[in-house]
Fold each of these.
Amino acid sequence: MDSILLTLLTFSPLLGLILLIFIPRTQTGALKLIGVLSSVLPLILAFVVYGAFDLKQAGLQFVEKLEWFSIPAEQVQFPINYELGVDGLSMPLVVLTAIIGFFAAIAGTIFVDKRWKEFYILFTIMLTGMLGVFTSQNLFLFFIFFEMTLIPMFFVMGIWGFKDREKAAMKFLLYNGLGSAIMLIVFVAIFMSVWTLNFTEIKTAFTDPGSPFNTQGSPVFIGEGLRYGLFIALLVAFAIKMPIAPLHTWMIKAYTESPTPAVLISSGVLIKIGAYGLLRFNVGFFPEVAHQLAGLLAVLGVINIIYGCLLALVQNRLKLVLAYSSISHMGIILLGVAAMNEVGFQGAVFQMVSHGLIAALMFFIVSVIFERTSTDRLDDLGGIAKSMPFVSGIFLTAAMASAGLPGMSGFISEFTAFLGLFKEMPIIAAIGTLGIILTAVYLLRAVLNTTFGPTSDRWTVLADAQPLEVLPMVLVLGFIVLIGVYPSVLSEPLQATLQNIVPRIGG
Amino acid sequence: MMSSAWLIPLLPLAAFLLLVAFGRQLKESSAYIGILATLAAFVLALGTFLERFAAGAENYYFAFQWLTFGNKVIDMGFEVNQLNAMMLVIVTFVSLLVHIYSKGYMHGDERFPVFYSYLALFTFSMLGLVISPNLLQVYIFWELVGVCSFLLVGFYFYKPEARAAAKKAFIVTRIGDVGLFIGISLLFWYVGSFNFSDIFTALQNGAMESWQITLVGILIFIGAVGKSGQFPLHTWLPDAMEGPTPVSALIHAATMVAAGVYLVAVMFPLYQASVDASLVVAYIGGFTAIFAASIGLTQRDIKRVLAYSTVSQLGYMMLALGMASVAGYVAGTFHLMTHAFFKALLFLAAGSVIHAVHTQDIFEMGGLFKKMRVTGTVFLIGCLSIAGIFPFAGYWSKEEILGAVYNKGHLGLFAVGVIAAFFTAFYMFRLFFATFTGEAADDTKKVHESPLVMTVPMILLAILAVVAGFINTPGNPVLGHWLTETMAGAEEAHHAPFWISVVATLVSLLGIFLAWLMYGKKSVSRGAIAEPFPWLYQLSYRKYYIDELYNNVIVRPLRVFGEFLTMVDVYIIDGLVKLVAGFTKELGHAGARVQNGQIQTYGLIAFLGIVLLVIGLTFGRGYLG
């Protein structure tokens, strides 16, 4: 209870921010160093927390609770608390965020070419926001941290992005702003019915007849209709974030026009917030509704998978292939959630972490190639394995991980999510497995057209990966392999928590 | 020895890791690491086999907890039983010889260490598959085997054909893999476990409905169809010829394609429990046997003929396993073993030929026997063995298959097997006569025998291709008894009538004779049969246009559909959004100021959101409180 570990972890990037403010713009080396270091501290702390995490315990750990301020409401002062904590669901995502944060910070030193001071300032805010999203334990804090990821990202895209960056940034802000507006309304509505902001208390109030929040002796009375309404509204908000087709178009632009570190953060962590919200709020607060609408989620998941695959199949730019690939992989998370059983949820969380690592790695590799060739068009590239054997090898390995090759995290995630759904809806799951084939098709097409084949004269003298590029790639690949070979590192903290989330239908 | 069987796959894995780390420095001495590791694995495998083979030996099982799903524990581990003890020896032996042979064959290739690292990984994956005690672990290694074969087929990555072939191998087999994936998933929920022992116990206890058994049986077989190149997923195997020839030997004999047959053999109790599923196996196998043989009749590329012969022989194995009888089980696994020896031999010998003449077209060769006596002799042995001539290894196993089919009363399938045997004998000797006898097509070429490092592995395989059959003769079926000693109904296995043996031998001799007339003595012109039926010849030569069919019916429509969806995505979905958010443009102007870094403005926007939340809370409280 007295632990302030999570506060330290969440706000540790801001230490870097303070230092950055005092470093002159011209000292680019120092700016980059501090930028990277400000991501190392949370990385270390994240592993400290992970190491101290009690695997047996289902509830929240490292809980911190402070009265922050209060709002006057008629006669009473309603307190707004500062509440942090992690459980098995958020723990893996905190570690993921820290890893991707480090990855993106290094990417910043390589791929950002101007105004490092502002860049890293925005970066540290974003990192704190992302960590906070997963550690916060009430709606108010969650929303603030959520916004802390949104606004800096808008600037990073708009300032450091590629040619069409402003349009992309605006689109990003519009969609995500709309999403957070909807989320805000839902949060307010939830608060108005249970008079608390705390996740656990809301969950208890909504689902447990004996809860102290209920005076009537039954779960807080919100009508069937309102529950459905809130569920759908939240689903839309998180569907934008994940994204779920047809709300995905902001992401396509964002991935093609954003600077590399922003894409790593987006594909690695930000879109996972949508999936996290889906599990934490939609399933956590409205288990009956989730159970009722599981079929809808499964169908949306299959549509996402197949739609993403089919589009990825014909794109002529690597970044577009990866963007649609992300949509497809988000569909697998939906399938896991739709299963509404422990196996499925476990698969969904596995897939969040796994896709975060793999997608970030893939985008990083494409950026490394782009940096040297100034193109990501498939018909321009080809045969670069000759001049860049290391990068090409990693690219193929990452693609295999993404296509679900055993021994790497993609397989066990995909397999577990599907396995969960096969228990409940075998037909829909079987249709979804078409995606497994199509994923291999589009990934091999993209990777082989880039690396295999005859080497054009333009690409015979490309430099292979530099040490600074090798380090993060190997590190992330190491995590991908670790999870693939020994998935218990991920599943053990999850187990106890997931048992709590699985809807107890009929009880 | 059995308790240390887990080391068998780990040795090649260690070699792989070493080669990845130090391959660049080691250059061609990489070969020694690979050879040593596989040699050690082979010795261990042999020890394991002998220990299991000894009278009174029991199976060995070890597993540890790998992952949990709620209250369900998923294990990883290893198992030694009769079938996989035999497989371990076959795989390590063939792999060892391929490792040795490649030292000569790949000499001078600039990616020599990479090649050896792939070989080691391939061997590791296949051995891991073989010792798996549960279906999930099988699936894991199954996929790794697929990736390794992809890597090796695409080894000459700069060649567009190799790129296309590698991609095809991966994707076509993956279609099958998805069948297996679904089958395993469903089985897990029906039985509650991936472990073979649990699955077989559940089958015995009647825990599964019969439709479930059939469904799972067929789904798992789909996986085997992909891996073992059975119709209709056979198309990748002939194209996989783009890889270096030693790889073909490995893929066709001991690793990749053997995995499918092995899987069906491992799941044999499942097929015994479902008549429908086993009939599907039998008919697909039988059809593939004759279908692929009929394509082999007309191909001109030496490796392609061998590839179709593999497809056809694998069909035989499936046909035998599909009988769901003990005799069928023995015949199928026995043929898997003899085939491993003679097919590895044939490919290595073909590689030796290609190495010498630098062409793969059999009608550009000719007269090679004089110049390459060792290669020619071992190739002839391979041909006699695959054609099923007494007393070569192929004779014994093919007899067993035909006998098992006949005893089950499937006369149609029996006839198919006999006709396919005729085709096999014909096209194999067509290959032999065209390549090794007659006059050289191009006398200017200097052709000489391959070095010892290549011929010695071939000679070893040739010896086995002669004698391996004697381990399971009708009079003394040592292997069969041992393989099935724990199986129910083993004693019922009775042998087929003697006349089958006579008929099959005559048919094969007839095929050889016809080939000799056309390509050896040349008293019958090559076109004598093809010319009256040009369409039939074309059908066979163009492989029944299956590739074209898939291309036009699946690949292209899929691409067109993808293009169509892209249009929908860009113009309709995104267009609608733009329409709805008509003010995007207006805001776009405001967005231009982003460049000026007016952070305050946007901080304000964020702050406004938070204020809104606070107001909402207050309002809510006041309103309802």
Amino acid sequence: MKKEDLKNKILDVIREKEISPKPKWHFLVKDYSVWFFGIVSVLIGGVASSVVIFVLINGDWMSYRFLSDSLLEHTIKVAPYYWLLFLGIFILVADYNFKNTKEGYRYSVPKIVGLSILTSIILGLIFYSVGLAHITDYALSNRLPGYHRLNDIKKEMWNNPETGLLAGTVIPSERSDVLIVEDFDGNRWEVSISNLMPMHFIILDNVERVVFSGKFIDEGHFEACAVKPWELKGESPYIREKMFEQMEQSGMHIPSNYGSVGGGMMRRGLQDENLDERNIFWMRINNCGSPAGPKITN
Amino acid sequence: MVNIEKTDEELVALSLQNRDFFAYIVDRYEEKMFRYVRRITNLREEDLSDILQDIFIKVYQNLNDYDRNLSFSSWIYRIAHNQVVDTYRKNKSRPQGNYIDVDDSVIENFANDFDFVKAIDNKYLKENIKNILDHLDENYKEILILKFFEEKDYKEISDILKKPMGTVATLINRAKKQFKEELEKSKINL
């Protein structure tokens, strides 16, 4: 075909079919959509990352011997599989969107994926520090059937009196020989504290939600060997207030030194005493006899 | 004399105002596109007109999407590449044949870049290069065509194929390796 022929043919087709350039807004909408979905993916990835951080920080790694037979078993028990999967998916979606921006192809895949992961981690740390991870975990447990929030998983792990672990809230009582503790299932226990060391009382003076390790005597009776505060790091102050409101409305007792405030006070108290809270819990009292349950090995 | 005086970018702006100016763009790129598409497709001359027509119509429809960060040449080559890929995706296969024009400058380009080519008789290479290219994987063949026939640099190839420059370099290296293997298969004594 001659050069002139092709040119004329193309121009004829344009004229006959009344073809015109697509308007600029058409391309702008496309470009902005790609950026919009890319940014949304990064933000969702950040939220997923914050929950992963939240779960990992609250994974009770220092106490895994109390809760599982091995570190591997404990990791399998607490690993946030769904969130890791979710994070992976949104990193890939963000990567796909970024590659489809006008200049995205200029960057190599490892660079884009690396940048997505880094952004997710940084956003995750920010979201975690403002309590968004806790809010997400809490909100999903209320709305998503089958979703177990971290706090419930921790309660299941730590509140197991038969194996020597009792977790709950200390209830004020007139008795001095025992503590009255309401566990997370709502059962009341008389906890013998005669074997506790003086430093354990620093914890009991400052925190009302605690975990005891010790011996199961019988239903309703427990002998404490050690105590550590029940603490969820990265809690949202908003949810805490909301829960307190609900507790108040239900006529329940509100812990006075709950969560990070109590934990902070307690930590400062322990620092003054030059003690570490975890070391306290790891200590064994000879008076308590054999280690406080089948899973405590040292 | 609009065609000579105006830059590609100016012609794009003028075509958006008046479609008659698009004729100058067709004029300027028709031959280049014809050669490029024929080289990467092996289509006969008479079959090329449809695909060229589709390319230029797509260029016209997408004039508002022309990214001034790219050279217009890279942009139109990208559209041509995508159109060829789309066409073959629809047809499911590429025709085999020898419609690659090899002139002395192409051989010189190969010789400057391939050490092992220097040792080969130019006449022999000129006669066989088409067959060798036709035996390469499609993506390797195209990247060698862009580099040695179309004389595009890494940045331009990156913009045309929408791949990072590092990937372009890797592809060119692999393509060269495959080219050398095909040469060896042809029982050429290196």
Amino acid sequence: MSEWSTIQDLQGWKDKLGELLAEARKAAQQDELAPRIDVNERLMQFVENSWPNSPEITALDEIAIQTASAMLKQTIEERLQTITERTGEYQRLGKQFAALAEETEAKADSIRLGAITSFIDATTKLIDSAKALQKSLKDNAADQRLGEKIEETIAAIEALRSSIGKRI
Amino acid sequence: MKQQKIPRSPVNHELSSRASPASPRRKRGVPLIQIELLLIAGLAGCAPLPQVGPFVEASNQLRSAVAASGTTVAAELRLMPGGTASADRLQQEWEVRNKAFAGIAAYANSLKAIVDAGNEGAASAQKVADSVSGLARAAGVSLPGTPEALATATDCVKFISAQIALTRATKSLEQALETAQPAVEAITELVAADLKDLEDVFVSAAKANDNAVRTSEEFRDLLGYRIQLLKQIGMSNPADTATCDRQVQLGQMLQASDAWLSKYLAERKEIDDRLRVGRALIQATLQSARDWGVAHGNLIMAVKERRPVNTDSLIQAAVEIRNLVRKVREL
């Protein structure tokens, strides 16, 4: 026998709803979800079982529906509030992970000798450009001086190459 | 430890500026320096770096699962009568979580970059040697040494570089893991608490959507009507011929509401299916976050103790998460 089958009249339904509202108040004061979901289910069953569909019974149903809805909305708001309270901590930790990732990537690049390789490749391009410039120089005093400077630069870069060769 | 085989390189003779062909070591006809280096490396005990690939995959899956969990719950809230504001709020809060987990994924990838760099020490040295060679050619520099001597010297440099890279990578990996560990523990706890709240929001939103179906204009009186019919059928006596017509009529009335009932049940089942799969995703995400935190700790131990790390559970969890995310998207 269900808890609804014994209810015979409007007063019986009123009493039952009063009982459910008291249960709902109790559940709303607890933090756990389960008691709230249990009361919600009983309120819905109340709506389904209450009979006949007189205006009085329909008014009771409406109270049951509103109570169930308010309880679920309260749960959602409470949980969203605690989620919001954690957001700052996520921001802090997210930044920490991003910074650590950047630092670790830089170390990986250093282990890969990436900076050295990039530097040498850039220097090689510089020498190619310097030589092209050297070829375009004319046979006058000013250009001769520039040509000497380019020679000196290439020699300096070669010295650097040799040093890098010894470093790795 | 198994000692590394030193490859012979036909290129990069330029690096030989470090080793003269006239060196007494070379005169013996044996690349003695290689033997010495092998011994040094053996004594140093350069262990291979642990596999971090599954950890990276797990981090990416965790990121995707956290994002999918938030999206799933926000979508359920949007279906709820008056739930748009809550959905917007959740989405906004969850965006910060998604960013944090993007940072975590980047961190995991950087660990892999370290391990790869450590394992590719010789290749890196080769790359530098190639660049140096190109530079020397561009500068028109003629380098001393016979090709054999130069090749030997290049091999030695590559071998040393490989060992140095392994050592540096091991140190860097250990340092990165240890630096991150408190943040990993903190975020594991945070996400566990978040997912619990998220599940409550999800269940509440789904129940509200279910209530909306149950109390809708279309179905509101259906169940009460059927309950009353069943009550009357239950009270009648099948052997009573006087009420036979009435009993048949009640049966027909009940049957007439079946299509209505089917529609009602189908709408509720749809909500229940979303709830079931969504909760499974949230639970799997929670478990995955725990496994991920434990795996991070295990990686530290693996690097410290120079032993491989067991990643089976991480791989399995990643597969499960991928399937659940797919199911949720299909709903």
Amino acid sequence: MKLSPDKRIDLRDVLDGLEDYRPRRKGWHWRTPAPDHKVGPFTYRNASEDLKNSVALPAAHAFGAIDPQCDFVITTEIASGRFEDDIRRMRMAAWHGADHLMVIRTTGQSHIDGLIEGTPEGIGGIPVTRKQLRATRKALDAMEDEVGRPINFHSYVSGLAGPEMAVLFSEEGVNGAHQDPQYNVLYRGINMHRSFVDAAEAKKVMADGGILQIDGAHNANATAKEAWKVTPELLVQHAINTAYSRAAGMAAENIALSTVPPTAPPAPKLRLDLPYAVALRDLFKGYRMRAQQNTRYVESDTTEATVTHVLDTLISRLAGADIQSTITPDEGRNIPWHYNTIAGTNTARQTLMGLDGLTDQVKLDMDGELPELAREIKERAILMMEEILDMGGYYAAVEAGQFVDSGHYPERHGDGIARDPAGGSGAGTVVKRAPRYGAPVCSHFGDNVFKDGDCKAYGGCSLCNPDKIRYVDELDPLDNVGERLKVPLDERDRGILRPEVERHGDGMVCVTLFVPAPPDVAEAAAIDMALHMNLKNPEVISKRVLHPAEGSVFEIKGVLDVYIDTAFLTLPTKVDLIPDADIEAWVRPRHIHAVAATVGEDEHSVGLREILNIKHGGVERFGLKCHDLGTSISVTRLLDEAERTGARVVLMSTIVTHADVHKKNMRRLADEATARGLRERLVLVAGGTQVTDEMAKECGLDAGFGRGTKGRDVGSFLVRELQRRGN
Amino acid sequence: MPSLDRPDDFQTRRAHLKDLSDDELHARFWDLANRIVQPLVAEARTHTTPAVERSVLLRMGFTGAEARDLVNGMQARGLLGCGAGKLVLVLANAHHLTVREAGLTLLEGRMWEELGV
Ligand code: B12
């Protein structure tokens, strides 16, 4: 399957031939570092290799449209409930620099004792099945080729079917996975004996498959209200999962610790979060750091979330990390929307490029209070581990509610999550292995009469011989991707478009309204306004009081229940530009004069200079004789000068638009030129940030140019226009 | 055990830690971690679960649903401790069947009485 940048991914191609599709590689992929990497005008110190295709950061236009890539892997979590919609979002994320795409599982999958098959729809995530993994992997393989960088695919090896998930992931080329039995125990109520026995097998399979493991410690600070107080326990949870993983055969470099800076402003965030970051990296040298942005305090304000996430990413750069995982800025208010996923990804990308080389100039002060505070967290963690052993070990400590207590250890509040070692889902299912117990497959953990490779006797296990893998298609004739795609594919074929934030055709839009009234009145009014806009089921998803009496701002989501038939759209016709050499060959011998100025009381000269100046690629280089009169020039003076120099061309810049002064300037130019009998001879052109071609023509000019215009756009137009007039 | 409730007595508790060097402290941290997981690892080494056994059968070429039915049958007969994969392999060898044929035979409800000998 091959993608082409100008075409939408065809889900029929993705689903076609899945029964025979094999992943092209197994195991995790780190970015390839590019030391002292020159990109455009800069030399980067924390960069990795460039992409073949991408959407650059917005400000890149000022630096030659560069899109440098940082050294950290960037994670994006995607989970709409339908993998076919997620695939499209993954492609957008990959173009914005994400190379670790994580799919969240549907609610309840942890409690299913076995595998799910097919492609049923999920809630808050997708049911992870072989078909769904394979389809996604296949699409990601095509995206890798498109962007020119390997993409890591990631999901969860937890719940009651952990070992099977691990096998499935290894077979299907999933590159990373969350695996932490403590998560099952503390947050899923799964029996602890079962969780740990399952985990050893799962970890062994993951270890041999080169799958990067991410632990689950961060869930403790997502749970606690005063998250900075659970930092000693976080170290304990990291340590338990890490030591257990090592015992199961996992290499240190495949063990990533999931760490989230615990606080958010107005808390004094960096001062509170750095000691934990330092303590963790001291104790876990040689392991990988998966830095996750904070989600605990995000509610509905996307700007607030973004600022917190920038600070989180700053901590990653200062303290060091291997993976920067992102949280969408709308995490607190809905299942993330397409464009917010991209916004979150860009927060990491933009911040990390901005912080490039920072640690060559700015360092953590390891002579001040920082190492002392870090040491205190370490000591508190050690005291907790000592007590766990005194209590009779891990199981007894969990039973006593030692974990996820909100107290700052050794302080205890008695509000921890206590679990019964004999209870929980899957209780009583752990069986002692008989003396001659055997499992004739590779990557098996524990006592076994067989060893790795013995599977050759029967033609190899599925990890050695992928032909052994049995592919199951759909089990449910109604709840599957084929059914779900009928309408979207049909609409697509017919050229029908609807707005969307999450899934094909959801019609969801979001409007921002400021209403100048006290909050209650303003909110009721805002909803009413949304109804007047014909939005169905309008709902306030964010509100901020700007002043208790002067007004509030609302973001309102609602369904815009209309569709657009692309057959009836009129698109602006794209003009092919005349090649530079041909423009020059026509202009230079004719000695054509042009007068130029920024008119009215407008002092902006940068844009016009871009258009004129030879050094900036302006029209002078074609041999156009330009008379730049400067800024704040009246229209009258501009036309006087046109007459005096015998110019054929007027180039007017108009940047300020208050009270439509740009339109007034354009009209004045057209009217006065006509009144003075100059209109026939002069080609009248205006430009400016808010100027469009239609607007300029409406105002009586010949052409208008907006943001991003280049000299050659203007040159090409002038040649055609002058030729049209018979010169 | 009753749930814990206690003020922050860090300063008194840390008496035995405060003079350790950082290296000693780190060594102690990892020693404790390894001691905590040691019995858990031992249990995993000597025990199995339906999920572990299903994952073995998956690797031997069965679907999730087939693995589930085979493991449920073995569990009901108290045979899981022998290892689901070994049970199927031994049956296959005894009857010159492929592993898959042996498993499908069991799924048809036949030859269960021969397992575990
Ligand atoms: C630099 C700048 C200034 C500099 C100008 C320095 C200078 N010598 O030009 C300074 C600091 C002096 C300045 C002052 C002011 N500025 Co100012 N300024 C900017 C800023 C930051 C960048 C503009 C810029 O240079 N862009 C880069 C150039 C390359 O882009 P461009 O101008 O759009 O030009 C391109 C196209 O529009 C087009 N084009 C432009 N002209 C022409 C002409 C022709 C013939 C053609 C074909 C094409 C063309 O091609 C160009 C190249 O692609 C913008 C904000 C922003 N980030 O955009 C505000 C901005 C333009 N400024 C603004 C304002 C209001 C002012 C002031 C009026 C503020 C004040 N009240 O004092 C004063 C100006 C006072 C005055 N009497 O004019 C507003 C305008 C708002 C509006 N739409 O009305 C902006 C948008 C900021 C804002 N959001 O408030 N400003």
